[in-house]
Specification:
By secondary structure, this protein is mostly helical. About 80% of the residues lie in helices and about 0% in strands. The longest helix has 29 residues, at about 65-95. The protein binds 5-(aminomethyl)-2-methylpyrimidin-4-amine (NSP). 5-(aminomethyl)-2-methylpyrimidin-4-amine binds near residues 44, 48, 82 and 131. This is Aminopyrimidine aminohydrolase. Belongs to the TenA family.
């Protein structure tokens, strides 16, 4: 079994929880309160900047030329394509220019930056994989379920993550993960699973924090 298949098996119960989260259910139905989506989009704009930085760091640590290129294209995609989606919503929702990251957002981005810089590069790749793969699976799931929902205000978000362009990046990220895992020791493969599970948990926390409009306790 490929490393990625084993990794997905490990997070399947968590993924099932993610699709059932009120944030994602209400996004699917188009009933998510706009202030929760606005909060999410603002935090996600901060997230994508840091995610892009983590991807660039990984790019610079890759051995193969094509992987250097793939990761720098992922970084450009996070900042150019995904942030363009935010900017289109920002125009209608009026989100401020400067964003203070919530505790969960800061925890997640700092985790990714730390792994990108200091972990074995295969482990760093495993840490960023949920950002691709879980979003693709959530996007597809929502896309398939929302057929009867008319005029969903969150349609552009759904279309981005269920779309072809994003699917191509996800496919590449998966192929690279499996390639690096196949060359890694058993110990490194286990560390890759751990990073993949940790980042998946942080994805759950990110959605949960948006739904709760999370604030700093002090
Ligand atoms: C928190 C989060 N994780 C992943 C993605 C998709 N790259 C995103 N936009 N935001």
């Amino acid at each position: 079994m490929k490393w990625s298949e084993q990794a997905w098996e490990r997070i399947t119960p968590l993924f099932n929880k993610i699709v059932e989260m009120p944030f994602n259910q209400e996004l699917l139905n188009g009933t998510l309160p706009v202030e929760k989506f606005k909060f999410y989009m603002a935090q996600d704009a901060y997230y994508l900047g840091e995610f892009g930085r983590a991807l660039s760091t990984i790019s610079g640590r890759m051995e193969k030329m094509e992987h250097i290129l793939d990761f720098s294209q992922f970084a450009a995609g996070a900042i150019v394509v995904e942030r363009a989606l935010h900017e289109s919503y920002f125009k209608t929702l009026g989100i401020p220019d400067s964003i203070n990251p919530s505790p969960s957002c800061l925890l997640y981005t700092n985790y990714l930056l730390k792994e990108a810089k200091y972990a074995d590069v295969a482990v760093a790749v495993a840490a960023v994989l949920p950002c691709f793969w879980i979003y693709k699976k959530v996007g597809d799931h929502i896309y398939q379920q929302q057929a009867e929902v008319k005029n969903n205000p969150y349609k552009n978000w759904i279309d981005t993550y269920a779309g072809e362009e994003f699917a191509e990046s996800v496919h590449k990220a998966l192929t690279i993960s499996d390639e690096l895992a196949s060359e890694a020791s058993a110990k490194t493969q286990e560390a890759m699973f751990h990073a993949f599970e940790m980042a998946s948990r942080l994805e759950w926390m990110f959605w949960d924090s948006a739904y709760r409009l999370e604030e700093w306790p002090v």
